Amino acid sequence: MNPVEYCQNFNLIEFVSQSPDSIAPFSLSLEKFEVHFKDAGVLEIIPNQPSNVRLVLSAGVHGNETAPIEILSDLVSRILQREIELAVNLLVIIGNPRAMLKEERFTGFNLNRLFCGEWKNYLDDADASEEAHRAKALEQHVTSFFSQAAVEEPEQAGLGQVKIHYDLHTAIKPSLHQKFAIYPYLKDRKHSKSQIRFLIDAGIETILLYHKPGTTFSYFSTDKFNAHGFTLELGKVKPFGENNREDFLQFEQALTQQLTGQYEFESMPEIDDANLYQVKTELIRHSEMDELGFDSANTANFTQFNKGELLLDAGKNSYLVEEDGEAIVFPNNKVPVGQRMGLVVKK
Predict the structure, then answer these.
(1) Which of 43, 197, 242, 288 would staple 238 via disulfide (CB 3.0–4.6 Å)?
(2) First to last CA, the chain
């Protein structure tokens, strides 16, 4: 195999489509970087010039969210073809290849509910087993990638290791804020104003601060490795080929600046233009009889309600809006018992 020729012709979507279940791992060495093909939809690109930054870019955790997959595929091609001079250690992940091939959210169970070891409870579940094994594998790949930092880059230790994970998504339903980020729960850490500034510069001015631990992919990296982790909602779900890539141009340009080391993270940035929300409560389905008190199919994310309006009709677990301006995010009347029917948020 000619490494240069292989990289010149490489297409990530085609690579994943041809081998959605597994691959025999292999590596390519080129003048400026090494590429390690780790698994189906998982590859590391490591520049020969040392870097103290380890960046995970994931997409396709939900297989029908095609725009982020197209973005990552194009970025990888541009890096391998030397159009982008990579300056950070990069791990690229297409989360759910089987679901991507079907252009469905998942094949049996929501993969983004199976991280932080939650997969252990579903390995033998007939419906969820495929996603559970994938969550286990993805955790192992991220763990290996982030754990290499202290071992392989001791000369960069004085700079401080920087770990980042952007998990790219598009939302099922329209949103009053087209692009927004979910900032996972941080426990004893402070939110990073520098990262929030980057997101704003990337066209993501709305930030939702999560209120408790979770089982999402970005929370796994945040909790286990103290990474700057975010779930990024970049727009609306559309089939492959129907995404208007102009809608994502600002994000792609800012991300490219970060990949090439040209984005300057400020130590004390101004973030007054950030549109910050916090989670007030979750609406959980406790029984099959529970229903959202509004037309969830036609209600956009961040739609506001007035005090006293019914958001969840669930007997003793019902929820009435407590103050004007409370808004709903991710309303879904069709989730299984025990899962979230929506988030109630406020500015």
Answers:
(1) 242
(2) 55
